[in-house]
What does this fold into?
Amino acid sequence: MRATLLEAVRLAALQEMRRDPRVWVLGEDVARGGLFGQYRGFLDEFGAARIVSTPISEATIMGAGLGAALVGTRPIVEMRIADFALCAMDELVNQAAKARYMFGGQARVPMVIRMPHGIWRNSAAQHSQMLEAWLAHIPGLTVACPATPADAAGLLVTAIRSDDPVVLLEPKNLWQSEGEIPDGGIPPLPFGEAAHLRGGRDLTLVSWSAMVPEALRAAEALAAEGIEAELLDLRTLWPWDATAVSESVARTGHLLVAHEAVETAGFGAEVVATVAERGVPHRAARVGFPRVPVPFAPPLEQALKPGAERLTAAARRLLGR
It folds into this structure.
């Protein structure tokens, strides 16, 4: 069936709540359907004991989810948007991510932290960030960054069934993008497996989340010029599919990594460094947002936001065309 990304994740959460009575949701306005409608209709079906609207306190929300996970439930913690989760970093980084290790494997934190992220409708500097590199840096966290309805739904199912904390970063700008999702139930999608979206012999193009549609546009534009780019969508950043990327780069000899997050110290640097450390001969480049706050003014935001045009230009430079 065809669905938007927003509807796909709504159906995935609905499926898992019906399957497992230990799954519940907490966060701001979730009883009213959530900021984007991702919990529309949940209160009527599951009641106030499983769909819990909370005070406006991210530290409280994260801490309550952590405690509930430790005693055997499987909470979905709704952070509203990723920027707001910065108010709950101690609970996430120092507690949830480390609990299993600190208690010698005797504790589990089966918790999903949903953080819609990225540039969306001129939301300005405090509502537009992509902080996936911060989160991938933290031992104990799984970090997923889907770009399509099917991937977002499948990764949410896997995250809910995981016994460890999973951060699901959902691209706000792709909420209304459409794609095919399975009929008759959404299967779990394994962490750490990249999607091969396009084959090519000249260049390996690696991306994730909101940049994937731009990377597809760039690959099509390059093909019209006779440059064939192989496109990989990582889908998860920890674990990530270093083998698929390295094997592709070994064939093409060129690596271009694209992300909407700030380029400086972004996850693209991890991808480039890992391929180099594996001894794969290649030339590499990155495309990301400059190290400045995201401006509110639409023309400024558009001028700074990485897109297909910047990717095609970077690919040409990389290939010496």
